Each structure stands twice: as structure tokens, then as C-alpha cells.
Amino acid sequence: MSGKPKLHYFNGRGRMESIRWLLAAAGVEFEECFLETKDDLTKLQKDGSLLFQQVPMVEIDGMKMVQTRAIGNYIAAKYNLCGKDLKERALIDMYVEAITDLNELLMTHAFQPADKKEQHFATIVDKATNRYFPVYEKVLKDHGQDFLVGNRFSRADVQLLETLLMAEECKPDILAKFPLLQSFKARISNIPTIKKFLQPGSQRKPPLQEKDVPKLMKIFH
């Protein structure tokens, strides 16, 4: 068995994408085992691989880890992406939790019924531009450093960039009123490991298309 982490999920973003981002940012190569059918998921459930009967699941360091936050916390700690002390880690956790809340909204947009899509889109834009982005803009202004916490690259920077790019896919001018976030996006995108992950042909997944939703529903429901 190779020493590379092995990711078990469908061939798309979902809750695994932030884990892919973290591993890529840390410069860690990983393998992927895609769930194509309901039987693929059932097999993992029956052989005891999924502690709570659900994916994402990551095989890493002899463990079969489930629960997205637990996996993210482990990878961040293993590769020194969680700050230099307890206070920095607390800040990073706070920033990441809020980013995850916005990410969930973005991620679920394709699953909205047609009559709810417009309202859901409006909610995304409202929360991004009035609740979340102003906070990160202020953090960058007050902190005066290149990164969100301390003066070093952390998990918070990785996850914020991921979500900024997702938000721009949803609404290309969504960062128009946030010059510091625009600069942050450009700066973090240029970190070599991130830059590599943003190139065509990487293991970064494209946005979920509506045509793919029925296939996912067959796997998971």
C-alpha cells in the first residue's frame, strides 16, 4: 500500500473538496477512489470502513478517518497549518468555521429546486457580501499582514481562497467592494503549491452541474 492518503468520495467537490485543497496546499500527493454507484458506498458501509456510515472518508497514517472537520483538523495539524499556539489555532478555527458555513451555502446551490434557486442565490450574495466578506476584509486591514493569522500561511488562508473562488464562480463581481480580499486572493493563489492546484489537470474539481445531481442522488439516497 502506498503512503499517499487515499480519498473516498464521488468525483466532484462536495465536502471532500476542502480536504483536497488542504492536502494540495501542504504539497501532499493523494489518490482518489471514486464512488460511482450505490453499491460502491454500500460496500464501504458493510466492510466497516465508515465509522458513521458516510463519506468523506480518508485513509491516512493507518486510519480510516471520517467527519470532514476531524479530517481537516488532522491534516492542518500534521502539516503545520494550524498556527503557532493555542490562541492562533482558536482564531483559525473561528475563521474556518465561518468559511465552512458560507461554503455549505455555495455547495448546495445546484441541489435547490427550480422555484427556490433565485432566492437561494440572493441569500448567498447577501450573506457573502454583508456577513462574511466584510469580516475577512477587516481582519486583513487590522492585522496588516499577508495572512489571516499570525504572519504565516494557515488552513484559514487555504479555505478562504477556496470559498472566494467558489463565490466568484457564482457571481463574478462579488469581490468588487473588497479590495483587500482581491489582493489576498491574488497573493495566496501565487503560493507554489496552490498555484499548481489551480492549473488545469490538477485534482481540483469543477463546479457541480445540475445534470450531475441525479447521479449523486442515486449514490447517496
TrEMBL record:
<dbReference type="InterPro" id="IPR004046">
    <property type="entry name" value="GST_C"/>
</dbReference>
<protein>
    <recommendedName>
        <fullName>glutathione transferase</fullName>
        <ecNumber>2.5.1.18</ecNumber>
    </recommendedName>
</protein>
<dbReference type="InterPro" id="IPR040079">
    <property type="entry name" value="Glutathione_S-Trfase"/>
</dbReference>
<dbReference type="GO" id="GO:0004364">
    <property type="term" value="F:glutathione transferase activity"/>
</dbReference>
<dbReference type="InterPro" id="IPR004045">
    <property type="entry name" value="Glutathione_S-Trfase_N"/>
</dbReference>
<comment type="similarity">
    <text>Belongs to the GST superfamily. Alpha family.</text>
</comment>
<keyword id="KW-0808">Transferase</keyword>
<dbReference type="InterPro" id="IPR010987">
    <property type="entry name" value="Glutathione-S-Trfase_C-like"/>
</dbReference>
<dbReference type="InterPro" id="IPR036282">
    <property type="entry name" value="Glutathione-S-Trfase_C_sf"/>
</dbReference>
<dbReference type="Pfam" id="PF14497">
    <property type="entry name" value="GST_C_3"/>
</dbReference>
<feature type="domain" description="GST N-terminal">
    <location>
        <begin position="3"/>
        <end position="83"/>
    </location>
</feature>
<dbReference type="InterPro" id="IPR003080">
    <property type="entry name" value="GST_alpha"/>
</dbReference>
<feature type="domain" description="GST C-terminal">
    <location>
        <begin position="85"/>
        <end position="208"/>
    </location>
</feature>
<dbReference type="InterPro" id="IPR036249">
    <property type="entry name" value="Thioredoxin-like_sf"/>
</dbReference>
<dbReference type="Pfam" id="PF02798">
    <property type="entry name" value="GST_N"/>
</dbReference>
<dbReference type="InterPro" id="IPR050213">
    <property type="entry name" value="GST_superfamily"/>
</dbReference>
<dbReference type="GO" id="GO:0006805">
    <property type="term" value="P:xenobiotic metabolic process"/>
</dbReference>
<dbReference type="GO" id="GO:0006749">
    <property type="term" value="P:glutathione metabolic process"/>
</dbReference>
